[in-house]
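BUG: 3D viewer hangs when loading the predicted structure for this chain

Environment: internal workstation, default settings.
Expected: structure renders.
Actual: progress bar stalls at 90%.

Input used:
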Amino acid sequence: MPTSEHGDFEDPTKSAYSVERYESSWELQYMQKLEKDKTVSKWTKNHGITIEYITEAGNKIGYRPDFLVEKIDGTKEIHEVKGTQFLDNPDTIRKHERARTWCRQRGMNFIVVTKR
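Structure tokens produced before the viewer hung:
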């Protein structure tokens, strides 16, 4: 399970930014993995994407996905780092369904990254 560690990942080679902010130790580990992944050409958390969805209670919420990733073949993907304890939450399910639709409408893929 990720800790609530926050910090700066400095000088990533596959980001347009000199610093990428992480919200957990797990996100930091994932950034390091993206940097090493030979199929990834670019990635960022500083993408400015907000996807709106309706919660189970009927509230409209803006969801900011974790990572925008571009593969070397040009495929663009949204990657969401999520602990397994949240996957069955009705609002998480709604959020992920909306993100899948949003990505599909733009010719992108939506990937949930989790540890099982």
